TrEMBL record:
One of its GO terms (molecular function) is DNA-binding transcription factor activity. Residues 47-108 form the HTH lysR-type domain. This is LysR family transcriptional regulator. Gene3D superfamilies: Winged helix-like DNA-binding domain superfamily/Winged helix DNA-binding domain. InterPro entries: LysR_HTH_N (IPR000847), Molybdate_resp_trans_reg (IPR051815), WH-like_DNA-bd_sf (IPR036388), WH_DNA-bd_sf (IPR036390). It comes from Thermodesulfovibrio autotrophicus.
Length: 134
């Protein structure tokens, strides 16, 4: 009997780990996230969710693409919106155009900054492993 349900995707957390690249037998790894007043504000998974919402114009399609429940996606969106003080995600209900979801300019800016920080972190790890000697 064939199992139903979502296709099993690779663990999203493995993608948020940044590595330095091998230096001999070793590699320096780490992951970053931005803490807010409620805990995690931005991290790789939240950025991926925002990018998928931008791509699909739909929370449910974005959640499905990330193998995430719609409820979990909404929980993350609400957390980001509250902590940012300005909405990152806006929804439009029904009407002639059928409604939809979009990310705001504030979200675009946050994505850009987070990805820049992540790139700087990767460079930091690459430099750090160069100096590792036992």
């Amino acid at each position: 009997m064939k199992k139903r349900g979502r296709k099993k995707l690779k663990d999203l957390h493995q993608f948020c780990i940044t590595g330095s690249g091998k230096q001999g037998d070793y590699e320096l790894k780490g992951k970053i996230w931005i803490e807010g007043k409620e805990g995690t504000f931005l991290g790789y998974g939240r950025i991926a969710l925002l990018e998928k919402i931008k791509q699909y114009g739909s929370i449910s399609k974005a959640a499905k693409a990330l193998n995430m429940s719609y409820r979990q996606a909404w929980r993350l969106i609400n957390s980001m919106n509250r902590q940012a003080g300005t909405p990152f995600v806006e929804t439009q209900v029904g009407g002639q155009s059928g409604g939809g979801t979009k990310i705001t300019e504030a979200a675009e800016k946050a994505i850009e900054q987070f990805l820049r920080i992540q790139e700087d972190f990767k460079k930091f790890l690459e430099e750090g492993i160069k100096n590792f000697r036992i």
